[in-house]
Amino acid sequence: MVKVTVDGIQVEVPNGSSALQACEAAGKEIPRFCFHERLSVAGNCRMCLVQVVRAPKPVASCGFPVAEGMEILTDTEIVRKARRAVMEFLLINHPLDCPICDQGGECDLQDQAFGYGADHSRYQEAKRAVTDKYLGPLVKTVMTRCIQCTRCVRFATEIAGVPELGAVSRGENMEITNYVEKALTSELSGNLIDICPVGALTSKPYAFTARPWELKRTDSIDVFDAVGTNTSLHVRGSAVLRIVPRVNDEVNEEWLADKGRFAMDGLKHRRLDRPWVRVHGKLQPVSWQDAFVAIGRRLDGVAGERIGAIVGDLCDAESMLALKDLMTALGSSNVDCRQDGAQYDVSRREFYTFGSGIAGIEEADALLIVGSVPRQEAPVLNARIRKRFVAAGRGGFPIGMIGEPTADPTYRAEILGDGPGILADLRSGSHPFADVLKAAKRPMMIVGHGALVREDARAILAACWALAVEVGAVGPDWNGFNVLHTAASRVAGLDLGLLPGSGGRSAAGMMSGGVDVLWLLGADEFHTAQIGAQTFVVYQGHHGDAAAARADVILPGASFAEKSGTYVNTEGRVQRSFRAVMPPGDAREDWRILRAFSEVVGKTLPYDTLEALRDRLAAANPVFRVIGGRDVAGVSDLTGPAGDPAAVSPAPFQPVIDDYYQTNPICRASPTMGECSRIYVHPRTVAAE
């Protein structure tokens, strides 16, 4: 630690800290544009000037290291004049278009010009103009506003791992641009909007929509993958106008994947807002009572074992528990939260969660990825892997992958093979990467859904656990065995036991004619042709997707933005989201629909309020009693999951995501995500048009 005096206040800061960090530790506000806590230091805006005693001139505090006994002055006449001069230079060419700029009201340049700038300008020359750049369908550019802070360049290179932005020319002619005019290819490109301190990079779908002070903010969770990114929904009236990330260093730091940020326009399209019943082959709008009566009549006389339910990927824990309780009351054990057919061992939680935690990636010193493409399955988590890779330096964090990645993973990884057969070589030590894992103090393994949706999934899971034990990835002080899920509802579903009970049927068994009545709770990610022609289908959800078209009765539910819900992310962290807007039309929260229906059929569920249901949730599994945290512990029992490690198939792994932008009904209803899909996934179609 180093002792530094800031404006007469003595503080202690770690060795290697900058003067800016020392000033903030003393409670002093230092203006900045180019400096960002999660990016490398550029030192090119010069707005953070401070005075260091015995220094010949003001210094840029962001890149000036502290020393023992250093005295820093942050509010002297010299510092004030220097900052005013810097601000005057920054505003030489900046256009006076604040009234039409989407950054207005939350612009760092506005705020700091008011706080640290002068009230006049001495420059009379004409301002320069810069051609706008095309960065794709998500990020809008007005490059005349750019102050060349290079935050976007450093983010694209360091965090996203897609170095597609840079600076050309020098001095007054300097421009930030992409090297070839094409859309940015990162799944994290929307974060450029957040880190840009001016209005040069803004949201293209949100352009000219609203001002910040018009919006109501509600805490929520990104449900489009299993990372559990903390978000904030910005609402005006009854519409969600934008979604931005909230800071949570344990989960997402301050980043948000593009799908979670820009798919919100899907909440306005193809919505289910009234109950429907199929009459003589055609769906007809009806009242809630008529819809419930139609289902009740069909259930009359049907044995419990001929009733089943499948849960979708966007469901909250409350609705899943209510559905399970309803099925239990009807005498059915045919409940499944795995519409993709994935197989798990749920006897212990460490067999199906991300054991090290997302933040634990930064503690690992070797990584093996099995059957997963983290860049598409969990872009924010992939950024954490890249962060560890970059921090470790060249060769300091070896990464091996089993399975061919469908895109550049954004870090250097050795492809060990395309199928699970290589696991036997790693366990026997005949493969060189086995020595890398054994030499590591904290090796880590990520098992993806590409390995868990196969017929030999249990064998692969057992083989991966055996390898983890062999190389020391699991033990009393460290749990490096990680399962990376792709569905926001999956871990909560497994925690609540939404799996076929004794004699129960799986999702595939139910769809192939194993039940007479099939209840789909937001389950859309399968081909509806798999459902038997004679099966009576009840679809409860918020979008008119393929499963709704197949349904005999449609019950309109609420999306994640229209209800308060509990979600459990891939690492087993229980988190809460809150209602930002009301559901459209006659749509209702899913658990309320199930509770109302249970009363109609004489199987009344024992809770009338959300609080009572959450008490039932905590009673069903104690993990739901702790919100926001997770147990961080090693593994004392090294006994592996059920399965024969030798029974793996040589067949190569297949990616579980074909189109990152079209993975759920909200995304498929989103015009923005549709445009992204056409540009990034189907570029030949765009070229033909």
User: In terms of structural class, how would the helical and strand content be classed?
Assistant: alpha/beta
CATH fold topology of the domain at 276-340 and 489-625: Rossmann fold
The gross shape turns out to be: globular
Helix content: 25-40%
Biggest sheet strand order reads 14-13-26-25-24-15-16
CATH class of the domain at 276-340 and 489-625: Alpha Beta
- The low-pLDDT segments are none
Q: Return the CATH architecture of the domain at 276-340 and 489-625.
A: 3-Layer(aba) Sandwich
Mean pLDDT: 94
Report the radius of gyration as a whole number of Å: 28 Å
- Ends apart, CA distance between termini: 62 Å
How many beta-strand runs? 28
Describe the overall structure:
It comes from Gluconacetobacter johannae. GO terms for molecular function: 2 iron, 2 sulfur cluster binding; 4 iron, 4 sulfur cluster binding; metal ion binding; NADH dehydrogenase (ubiquinone) activity; oxidoreductase activity, acting on NAD(P)H; quinone binding. Its EC number is 7.1.1.-. Belongs to the complex I 75 kDa subunit family. Helix content is 27%, strand content 17%. By secondary structure, the protein is of the alpha/beta class. Among the domains are: 89 residues, Ubiquitin-like (UB roll), CATH 3.10.20; 202 residues, Rossmann fold, CATH 3.40.50.740; 138 residues, Dimethylsulfoxide Reductase, domain 2 (3-Layer(aba) Sandwich). A 7-stranded mixed beta sheet has the order 14-13-26-25-24-15-16, with helices on both faces. The longest helix is centred in the last third of the chain and has 15 residues. It is globular and about 90 Å long. The relative contact order is 0.12.
